[in-house]
């Protein structure tokens, strides 16, 4: 049985959170002399002289209506990376607890574990980049607090099988963090609507990819109210700055425009994959449910260096487990994609 109280670190259970000036006062006021702000204003036009809402209530309300998830089940982080770090800090005792990671996958689960001195247990994906459930199960012990799953997965691009995700959710008594950074580009449905069925589920999403707002640093964690309350207690009080809150609120009014971009990127991804399929120097084009394509190519490092001389930078994943000789290519604009293909063709001719 899932018991949040057993999972939680003892010091976090007892933690009295920082109470900010804006926490201690709520309601209407005329004069704000409670937070040592600059009452004269700021060099900028907006009211950036004031601390932002630590609970991001307006923004959460807007996210809630776009995602159709109650605001109390939404946590906002300074990028998903902050959500990842906060899960470690809330649940994993340094030097004692462990987590399970399934590489090749996103690097921050490992970096953040190392920062927090949390043991990493590795259950590599199978050849088809799906979960090795038996291996995962064999690694779990009483100190396993989180299993990190990324679907669609970075850098492989595939979605994890839905039934297997649910198998982990049904059988693991710790937190199952499913990173859906690329879900908007996928055929597969999000696990968001399943939140009520799984008290151990945390779904991570981000404004950095489909929403086109990597510069704002805004990540989302969807989970039970109990888990959201814990993350909110542990986070820095003003983790989402006022500019980000204002701009994200504006962006959320433009769902239609974002959906158009997603469709365009998916169409370009599929077209680019078709072109790659026909190129002799590319040995394999991995199916993608994301806004990037993983390709296996002869002498990947050499190709990577050659593309750099043409001013084109892709991601060299050739030294990553199961990704030998692989490059990860983000879908660009029509022109950028053509430039990339032209460069790959010209390389062949120069040899
Ligand atoms: C890009 C990416 C993120 C986004 O991280 P942010 O901190 O929100 O920018 C999260 N997870 C994966 C797997 C990613 O590839």
What does this entry look like structurally?
- With about 350 residues, this protein is of the alpha/beta class.
- Helix content is about 40%, strand content about 15%.
- The chain has helices spanning about 5, 10-15, 20-25, 55-65, 80-90, 110-115, 135-140, 160-170, 225-235, 240-250, 255-280, 300-310, 335-350, and strands at about 75, 100, 120, 145-150, 175-180, 200-205, 220, 280-285, 290-295, 315, 325-330.
- Helix 4 (about 55-65) packs parallel to helix 10.
- The mean pLDDT is about 95.
- Pyridoxal-5'-phosphate binds near residues 79, 80, 81, 106 and 179.
- Pyridoxal-5'-phosphate (PLP) binds near residues 79, 179 and 181.
Structural descriptors:
about 350 residues, alpha/beta, about 40% helix, globular, binds pyridoxal-5'-phosphate
How would you sum up the global shape?
A: globular
Which structural class is indicated by helix and strand composition? alpha/beta
Radius of gyration: 22 Å
Mean pLDDT: 96
Portion of residues in beta strands equals 5-15%
What is the element string, with H for helices and E for strands?
HHHHEHEHEHEHEEEHHHEEHEEH
Number of strands: 11
Provide the spatial order of strands within the biggest beta sheet: 1-7-6-5-4-2-3
Fraction in helix: 25-40%
Bound molecules: pyridoxal-5'-phosphate
> Please, how many helices?
13
Roughly how many Å apart are the termini?
61 Å
Largest sheet: 7 strands, mixed
Low-confidence runs of at least 5 consecutive residues:
none
